[in-house]
């Protein structure tokens, strides 16, 4: 900061000149600090977003009864469209978008079309519970192996083993999160063995 000196016959006055700082040009506003730079950057991003983003197609924006905007993904409140658009370019919103995409991708790995079957076993031995397992085409000896198929085997004495030929696709594991799609149930009163399984669909 420099000073300008005015002299008179009886008084000397020194007036500070805040605009003539080191590194600034005469008549300029001085060197911008970090906060001013960030404000300017956010404003430029906001204007660019307003020009390029159609808010009508944003599935996460919600205008409440007070006229404010809400981000349904991040649960944040914004006073205007510019503020909301600046938020969508920020780290929190982008992180939540990535998490949502990962969760959606996991959900689409499962084909929600389980296969259910029922087997009536009226002559099953007392205290015997049917068992099932999946068998590859090369384990069985009844048919020539075909890599396009696998077999679902049901065993219950005194019956011979029952085999269902199904496509050779990966089966959803009972230990996975979606294991509730994969189950079996034996009803000793009706002698009915019911089971269900689901193929895993990988993209």
What does this structure look like?
Helix content is 22%, strand content 28%. The chain is α+β, with helices and mostly antiparallel strands. α1 crosses α2. The protein is elongated.
What is the structural class? Answer: alpha+beta
Low-pLDDT runs: 10-15
- Alpha carbon gyration radius: 36 Å
Q: Which strand order spans the largest sheet, edge to edge or round the barrel?
A: 3-4-5
Give the total of beta strands.
11
Largest sheet properties: 3 strands, antiparallel
% residues in beta strands: 25-35%
Helix content: 10-25%
Overall mean pLDDT: 77
Shape: elongated
Q: Can you count the helices?
A: 3
Report the order of strands and helices: EEHEEEHHEEEEEE
Termini gap: 66 Å
Which characteristics define this entry?
203 residues, 3-stranded antiparallel sheet, alpha+beta
How are the elements arranged and paired?
Layout (H helix, E strand, L loop, with lengths): L1 E6 L4 E6 L16 H19 L8 E3 L5 E3 L4 E3 L2 H8 L2 H17 L7 E6 L10 E6 L12 E7 L6 E6 L15 E5 L4 E6 L6
Antiparallel strand pairs: 1-2, 3-4, 4-5, 6-11, 7-8, 8-9, 10-11
Helix pairs in contact: 1-2
